[in-house]
């Protein structure tokens, strides 16, 4: 089968090969024919080493498709079922799951270290990013990674719900719990940032300022619910005009860098909330002094995968999409075939795309 492979961490292009096979199918596993997958910035972060991932590997973790086989012991799923892929399934038995914080379950992370592909020639191992690897025609995953979707949800929409939509909406709805009438700033307006904007709008924020260096993304943010969109050098002026210099009630950092997180902290009012959504590098350190932490009493809330039960978040996103309360189709600004995956990478790096759908 065909798959897009990164041979070594640090390479900036993928090679589309036709000699890749799925591996590991057996009890408790399902094999999925991938139909659509989104390109998330986390895929690029894994490629360049910001996020840890063994190589060689197949990127992609935001996908949807059809079940083509189920292993022994699998119940509730059958051949032909339409599913989205959950890259962080909950085990249900660990302390985090028992506390109701299923988004913090570590069981799914263990999948990233187990190869679920191989080369057909030399049978060498190939890993799937985050235990999935959706830049491939087929993938084998644990049964918990395959979540059934209703027939009226297209594969491309379902794929987005599998990561970006859940992450962005959840940051505003679950983690920050944005208050009605509040002021919000969102730093970084790719697909996840746009979903945070939609979440803040759903929660009733009065002002939502989108901050991004790319003009097309600023324009898009206005269509998705931002009341104003500025470049990074315009944030200080927006803070002064909208909040009289006090700072925003909520600021979302959706870039994953210490410099933008520091900017987000400084844009947050005393007693306000800074929500960290972007996934950053382990060696990128953020510094605070102890006085400001005490004196400003700003809440610093990291948000992992939307900060709530992902299955509930999936259902909520589908319900909101059906009701026309959120726009998911509009997030897909570009479409490519698997053979054109490197074009998708360039669209993400230059910022021209909110989400590129790779049709497989």
Helix content bin = 25-40%
DSSP strand tally:
19
Secondary structure category:
alpha/beta
Query: In what range is the share of β-strand residues?
Result: 25-35%
The averaged pLDDT comes out at: 96
Largest sheet: 7 strands, mixed
Please compute the radius of gyration using only Cα atoms: 20 Å
Spans of at least 5 consecutive residues with low confidence: none
Calculate the terminal CA-CA distance, rounded to whole Å: 11 Å
Shape: globular
Quickly count the helices: 12
Structural notes for this entry:
By secondary structure, this protein is an alpha/beta fold. Helix content is 29%, strand content 26%. The chain is built from 12 helices and 19 strands. It has helices spanning 41-47, 95-98, 107-110, 155-161, 164-175, 191-202, 215-223, 235-243, 258-267, 290-296, 310-322, 341-350, and strands at 3-5, 15-17, 20-22, 29-38, 57-58, 62-70, 82-85, 117-119, 125-128, 138-142, 146-148, 183-187, 207-211, 228-230, 248-253, 268-276, 299-302, 332-337, 355-359. The strands form 4 sheets. Strands 4, 6, 7, 10, 11, 18 and 19 form a 7-stranded mixed β-sheet that branches. A hairpin with a 5-residue loop joins strand 8 and strand 9. Helix 5 runs parallel beside helix 6 and helix 5 (164-175) packs across helix 11. It is globular. The chain starts with a strand and ends with a strand.
């Amino acid at each position: 089968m065909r798959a897009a492979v990164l041979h070594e961490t640090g390479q900036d292009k993928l090679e589309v090969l036709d000699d890749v096979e799925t591996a590991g199918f057996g009890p408790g596993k399902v094999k999925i024919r991938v139909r659509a997958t989104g390109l998330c910035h986390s895929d690029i972060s894994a490629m360049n080493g910001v996020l840890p991932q063994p190589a060689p590997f197949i990127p992609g973790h935001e996908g949807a498709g059809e079940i083509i086989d189920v292993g022994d012991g699998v119940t509730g799923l059958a051949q032909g079922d339409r599913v989205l892929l959950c890259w962080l399934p909950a085990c249900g038995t660990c302390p985090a799951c028992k506390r109701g914080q299923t988004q913090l379950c570590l069981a799914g992370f263990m999948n990233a270290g187990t190869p679920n592909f191989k080369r057909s020639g030399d049978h060498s191992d190939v890993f799937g990013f985050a235990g999935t690897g959706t830049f491939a025609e087929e993938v084998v995953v644990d049964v918990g990674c395959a979540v059934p979707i209703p027939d009226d949800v297209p594969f491309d929409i379902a794929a987005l719900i599998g990561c970006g939509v859940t992450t962005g909406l959840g940051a505003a709805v679950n983690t920050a719990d944005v208050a009605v009438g509040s002021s919000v700033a969102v730093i970084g307006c790719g697909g996840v940032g746009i979903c945070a904007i939609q979440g803040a709008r759903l929660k009733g924020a009065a002002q939502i300022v989108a901050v991004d260096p790319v003009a097309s993304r600023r324009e898009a943010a206005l269509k998705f619910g931002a009341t104003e969109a500025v470049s990074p050098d315009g944030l200080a002026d927006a803070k002064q005009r909208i909040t009289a210099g006090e700072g925003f009630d909520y600021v979302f950092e959706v870039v994953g860098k210490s410099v933008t997180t520091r900017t987000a902290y400084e844009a947050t009012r005393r007693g306000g909330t800074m929500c960290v959504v972007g996934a950053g590098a382990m060696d990128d350190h953020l510094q605070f002094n102890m006085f400001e932490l005490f004196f400003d009493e700003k809440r610093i809330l990291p948000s992992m995968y939307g900060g709530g039960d992902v299955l509930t978040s999936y259902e909520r996103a589908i319900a909101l999409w059906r009701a026309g309360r959120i726009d998911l189709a509009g997030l897909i600004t570009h479409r490519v075939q698997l053979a054109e995956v490197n074009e998708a990478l360039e669209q993400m790096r230059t910022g021209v795309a909110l989400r590129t759908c790779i049709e497989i």
